[in-house]
Amino acid sequence: MSQSNAIDSVALEALGRFMRTRFPDASGALELVPVSGGQSNPTFFLTLGDQRMGLRKQPPNAAPTAHAIDREYRIMNALRGSGVPVPAMLAYCDDPAFLGTPFYLMERLDGRVFGECWLPGVSAADRRAMYLDMARTLAGLHSIDWDRLGLGDYGRHQGYFARQIARWHRLWDLSRMAESADIDFLLKWLPANMPEGEINRIVHGDFRIGNLIFHPTEPRVIGVLDWELSTLGHPLADVAFSALGWHLAPDEYLGMWGKQAAFPGIPDERDYLDCYHAAAPGMPEVAPFHFAFSLFRLAVIFEGIAARARSGASHADNAVDVGRLATRFARRAVEIIERAGMD
To answer: Which helix (H) or strand (E) holds 51?
Structure first.
């Protein structure tokens, strides 16, 4: 475990006191095991006697508006019972006296999480069914009446793409390690090519195979995790991001291009998108803009990972290597625009 997400003995003892107060019927030894992977909020499996939970905390030295686990807790708590599969929220603590930063506890779901988006180890039929259930799960999220759930203030109601482009532009300026002609192109092209029309839904912000929990034996989603980037916004940003696997190589984080022959059952991108649209009738078609935007955002995120690693602030051991992908994501975005004849 790296230094920035380590829990020392003093903090573990303090956490034990918190647990005994909030769960007085629980007894036995307290164990906390870090969940590997990811570049963001440290996550742990927590066991207290026969109680099994997940714990997610804010990393130390986080910027005031970053790593907002209070928003993660709020959105999942609001979605419970909505039809969108999320773990039950058990407790939220904003007192730094326990773990140094705010944290929350959630139900620990028993299921399968896949680090590779080509879903190794399952049958071809299940592989296809899992991807199509992923599409239906996303469509279900985008059908939620956010106002009815008390989420009217969860994000602004207009101008999502304009705000997002401006935000990621600022972050690029703060974290870039070198000049990039592709990013410079995207910073001009994206604002000039935003689709007309406003659609406002709950957007997850990082909807991908690796953030889903599948049933232990059945090809269906039982949990959607990692809501750190969620807000109110345009649903096609989620749709395009969730489909980036068809546009990226296997060594490009989300990619599975070229894996279909070795891992049969992966649906065509068109089948995946058709399944989404069948479950979200009336939603416009995803366009090259949405893919280019998703890749631009991903490029800036990974450039930020590299910057944090350079400063010693990142807790991911492979952050420097992952950060090198930023230029490749920007290039893929420009290639999508060029193929569409929109350059």
So the answer is: strand 51-57
